[in-house]
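User: I'll paste a sequence; please echo it back and then give the predicted structure.

Assistant: Echoing your sequence first, then the prediction.
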Amino acid sequence: MGNYNPEEGDIMKAFTEYKIKNLTLRNRIVMPPMCMYSTDESGFVKDFHKVHYTARAIGGVGLIIVEATAVVPNGRITSNDLGIWSDAHIEGLKSLVESVKSYGSKIAIQLAHAGRKCTSNDEYIVAPSPIRFSEEYRIPKELTVDEIKEIVNKFKEAAIRVKKAGFDGVEIHSAHGFLLNQFLSPLTNKRTDEYGGNIYGRIKIHLEIIREIKKALGEDYPLLLRLGATDKTEGGITIEDSIKAALEFEKAGVDILDISGGFCGYALPGQAYFAPISEEIKKAVKVPVIVTGGIKDPYLAEKVLREGKADLIGVGRAILNDSSWAKKAVESFV
């Protein structure tokens, strides 16, 4: 893709303020959700989380999105995931929010359900269809329509807790092969009822969750959705389907689309590997788009922004490795 070569006097777009509704970010650098697996069966925030996320706020990140946080116990990826299935989780999350905000970053949190990729010690796991992830995983129970409605309600209840804890926004996780991504992808959604079939059936659960959250939190509360926009696998989700889905998510009330991978995961060779996909989706929608994909070079991040491939840049592993990445990026530009 090549790097952006600044001219003398250029202002780095990545480090200008960005406003979405009533939310103003100090820059366009986003720390995407990355699981730390650092709590216990309780799912409560620990001292580790406060240190971990606050360090990235001190390091200059504009928006921090807290790792995948389970809306139900059997929706955890592991038994060491953060949880938000109970009001008891609010107090710890609130203290985390206050610490991050005190250093100038805005903070959102990702609501997640692992579906068939759950490895916690719960009695059973669920999915849109009874297809196991691999031989090492259990065969999931196929969700009934009533159980799908209950999961929609669990996302809504979790979102209400997010707002009570003081977060600046909430993100729905539909990427990386987890439950909502399992509904989205024809590889794992073999249903013949209203929640399966074409792309519009496969995103019915997403639309119900989006509408319930918007109804509960209000139109002005920022709602993000992480979209596994490609499976990079034959028979998987196509860019055409992802664009259709993105348009429907926008109409339902999503304020920001966070573009990532589906069943291909989130770690491919090179940098900015999801930028071509985010560019196509950005052409179709009016809401802002975040792109991730192994970005570690600030000049490449700037080039992606200037070429209109995204509005915000998700920098994951580079910020995980160096909490001051954002500050150093500014210094390198100056």
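The CA atoms of residues 138 and 242 lie 29 Å apart. The chain is about 35% helix and 15% strand.
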